[in-house]
Design goal:
single chain, ssDNA-bd, NA-bd_OB-fold, mainly beta, 1 helix, Primosome_PriB/ssb, globular, single-stranded DNA binding, 147 residues
Amino acid sequence: MSGVNKVILVGRLGADPEVKAIGSGSTVARLNIATSESWVKDGQRQERTEWHRVTVWGKLAEICGKHLSKGRQVYVEGKLQTRQWEDQQGQKRYTTEIVASTVQFLGSAGAEAGSGRSSSSSGGGDDYNFQDFGPEPSFDSNDEIPF
């Protein structure tokens, strides 16, 4: 039986997307998304924020670069992927990231954090599905990511 590798996040961008054209003629965008959880311990409110590195490819990356900015709330579906490469000093490096297949823009572009407002009257936001933009380009793990 094969496994399941699916990640779903709803969070806010901690910075504007980093968008780069790579050698194969494709576009890649890096999103840094914060998710927070809170709880009460010993009568005190506790909060923890996790930061997630999300990679978006192709036309969807271009759309994210054009329409997203720091603070914008997004819904992301994708898969968890670990990459390995050698740095300039010959040391093996690893990174784990989410490769997005769907990005949905939540809230209006100018909405304040936590306002709960949506970018459409139906409450759905702008939905872009990665499958609409073709397959993820092949990536040579020996090449260095431009970030």
